Amino acid sequence: MPGIGVRYDLVTRERRRLSVVAEPDGVRTLSTYRKDDPDDRAMSVRLAADEAAAVVDALMPAHHSPSLLSTTELGLVAERVVLSRTSHWSGRLLGETRMRTDTGVSIVAVLRRAEAIPSPGPEFRLAGGDTLIVIGTREGVDTAVEILGRE
């Protein structure tokens, strides 16, 4: 669709026709068509980029697994915290952060380049650029972010 965007069409197993028009600015228009007349639009919804992303996540949540804990219902949050290249903690041992003792937050994994290190112990040496996966209360995680953001 020159000047508008790219149109994607899909026919479902129930023989229903759907289309999505993807505009260059991230806006998406989702349309369904009448079963008895596939050229007659039954519904059309225009979505901002963030709304479209929310629909994608609802349809295909990348994080969903029946064996995963839904932490928000338990009062816990999980977040990724990136250590800056100039971080105070770069080259130091994880135990030196006193993370669990001072905040109640657990660092459950460290992502380093293309490697994941699950359950790092207190002797694990941190490096600038590491992404730490932390879990705890909202207050604890906020405090952990402040501590880990130290330059």
Automatic annotation (TrEMBL):
Species in which this protein is naturally found: Streptomyces marokkonensis
Record domain RCK C-terminal: where: 66-150
Database matches in Pfam families: KhtT_N, TrkA_C
Superkingdom to which the source organism belongs: Bacteria
Stated name of the protein: TrkA C-terminal domain-containing protein
